[in-house]
């Protein structure tokens, strides 16, 4: 194995032989030129990694790289080896790294299917197939940058909800990529990418609307205007402060009348149990039961199946219209029930148990602030401020919280054709009257005292 200083002349003069041979560089340790029988000239670097293994990765072919360019790369690699890195192993890992498309497939099979609800799995698949794979599927997982994700989310500006769901899917997916060793820890490219603001679309069912709704439900049950299973489902959702799926999937075997409880083996947040109130017991005891059907609210056409969400949603919409109420989704029932729980004064932990929320933040998202309590609270604050200003203790808000009536107009008011009604000048002697107004700083006389701690105040005191 000859040793020479690798130069352009030496490389050009290297002739192919029957077998591969190498020419070692005398300037950079480990830097060499490999000449094959076919005449190819390949720059390589021989080194020993930190774990003791000998490596000889190819740097590149002569013609694609000059001698000096190849030597510079070899020196950079040697510096990495001195720092404990292994350029050859790093390149092998990079070549074996999966693409984002392959990561998506493993994410669904190894993470989403075992852990998520079927609806969540369907949503992940929609986000992956519609948005992630078309834009990022060809990239290697370690090569995806924050700007790549930012461009993807920015391109979904017109569909902010879908963009937020896609971002959440990507965040979890690249988190698992770190767990599976596809990316170094702490390199999730979705970090610091903000979500789009989403306006809440669920409005609160007011007290008047609640009375009108239940009045129509009573009338519908009496006169047979709606299917009894539909009105039962609505009443149960109010009684349990439940999600729609929890009512539609409810089975009779989950109801324990003896212990006054109902237990769902599975729900959005896992298995849960709720107590049966007197209202819920009355509803369940009086509910029609179809022999052979396990469901409390079975399908209207096939009792062996639960009522479909389509049937329930369209029935709810029709009932609102017939009751003369503004449209809102079925989730508004849960929002109203959570608001009633919060306003009833029960402890927060008890309220969360009734709604089956896991966090205080999520529970409070369902609680709406109504106008009457806010108005009463504003009166309490106002009364407290008045007590502080006046120096008197006011322990409770005044009984009459209405705004004071406007004072009656004076009996004799001078009117003028060029003065608008209600703005007539009360007295021509008042310096602030209409057509006689001057700024405060320009006025003088008995109706304008000198400001304290001024020269005018001192002169006024001397005159007194």
What report would you give on this structure?
With about 475 residues, the chain is an alpha+beta fold. Among the domains are: about 90 residues, 2-Layer Sandwich (Double Stranded RNA Binding Domain); about 80 residues, DNA polymerase, domain 1 (Orthogonal Bundle); about 140 residues, Intergrase catalytic core (hpI Integrase, Chain A), CATH 1.10.443.10. The protein is built from 17 helices and ten strands. The strands form three sheets. The chain has a five-stranded mixed β-sheet. A hairpin with a 5-residue loop joins strand 3 and strand 4. About 5% of the residues have low confidence.
**Whole-Å distance between the termini?**
117 Å
Major β-sheet annotation? 5 strands, mixed
Number of strands: 10
The string of secondary-structure elements, in order, is EHEEEEEEHHHHHHHHHEEEHHHHHHH
Number of helices: 17
CATH class of the domain at 222-365: Mainly Alpha
Taken from the alpha-carbon principal axes, the silhouette is elongated
Pfam families: Arm-DNA-bind_3 (PF13356), Phage_int_SAM_3 (PF14659), Phage_integrase (PF00589)
Family: Belongs to the 'phage' integrase family.
GO molecular function: DNA binding
Keywords: DNA integration, DNA recombination, DNA-binding
Secondary structure topology:
Blueprint (H helix, E strand, L loop, with lengths): L2 E2 L3 H6 L7 E5 L5 E5 L5 E5 L1 E2 L5 E2 L2 E4 L5 H16 L4 H10 L3 H16 L2 H19 L9 H9 L5 H20 L27 H17 L4 H13 L3 H5 L6 E2 L4 E4 L7 E4 L2 H8 L23 H15 L7 H13 L4 H8 L4 H6 L5 H20 L64 H9 L1
Helix pairs in contact: 4-5, 5-7, 8-12, 9-13, 13-14
Protein name: Tyrosine-type recombinase/integrase
Keywords: DNA integration, DNA recombination, DNA-binding
Organism: Neoroseomonas eburnea
């Amino acid at each position: 194995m000859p040793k020479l200083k690798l130069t352009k002349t030496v490389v050009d003069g290297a002739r192919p032989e029957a077998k591969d041979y190498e020419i070692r560089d005398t300037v950079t340790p480990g830097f060499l030129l490999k000449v094959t029988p076919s005449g190819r000239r390949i720059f390589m670097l021989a080194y020993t990694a930190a774990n003791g293994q000998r490596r000889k990765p190819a740097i590149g072919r002569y013609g694609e790289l000059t001698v000096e360019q190849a030597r510079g790369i070899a020196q950079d690699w040697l510096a990495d080896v001195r720092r404990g890195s292994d350029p050859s192993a790093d390149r092998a890992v990079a070549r074996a790294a999966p693409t984002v498309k392959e990561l998506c497939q493993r994410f669904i099979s190894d993470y989403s299917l075992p852990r998520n609800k079927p609806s969540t799995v369907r949503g992940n698949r929609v986000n992956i197939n519609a948005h992630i794979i078309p834009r990022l599927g060809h990239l290697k997982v370690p090569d995806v940058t924050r700007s790549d994700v930012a461009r993807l989310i920015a391109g979904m500006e017109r569909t902010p909800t879908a963009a937020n769901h896609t971002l959440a899917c990507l965040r979890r997916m690249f988190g698992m990529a770190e767990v599976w060793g596809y990316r170094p820890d702490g390199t999730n490219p979705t970090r610091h990418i903000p979500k789009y603001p989403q306006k809440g679309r669920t409005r609160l069912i007011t007290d008047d609307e609640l009375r009108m709704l239940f009045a129509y439900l009573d009338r519908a049950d009496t006169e047979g205007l709606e299917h009894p299973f539909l009105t039962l489902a609505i009443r149960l959702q109010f009684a349990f402060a439940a999600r729609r799926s929890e009512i539609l999937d409810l089975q009779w075997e989950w109801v324990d009348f003896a212990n006054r409880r109902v237990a769902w083996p599975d729900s959005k947040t896992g298995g849960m149990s709720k107590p049966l109130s007197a209202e819920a017991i009355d509803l369940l005891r009086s509910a029609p039961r179809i022999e052979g059907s396990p469901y409390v609210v079975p399908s209207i056409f096939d009792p062996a199946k639960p009522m479909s969400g389509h049937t329930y949603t369209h029935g709810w919409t029709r009932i609102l219209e017939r009751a003369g109420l503004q449209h809102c989704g079925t989730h508004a029932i849960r929002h109203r029930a959570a608001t009633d729980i919060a306003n009833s004064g029960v402890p927060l932990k008890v309220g969360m148990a009734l709604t089956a929320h896991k966090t205080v933040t999520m529970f409070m998202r369902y609680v709406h602030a109504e106008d009457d309590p806010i108005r009463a609270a504003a009166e309490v604050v106002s009364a407290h401020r008045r007590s502080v200003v006046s120096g008197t203790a006011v322990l409770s808000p005044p009984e009459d919280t209405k705004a004071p009536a406007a004072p009656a107009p004076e009996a004799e008011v001078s009117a003028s054709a060029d003065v608008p009604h209600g703005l007539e000048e009360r007295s021509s002697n008042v310096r602030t009257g209409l057509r006689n107004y001057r700024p405060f700083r320009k006025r003088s006389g008995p109706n304008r005292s000198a400001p304290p701690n001024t020269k005018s105040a001192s002169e006024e005191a001397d005159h007194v």
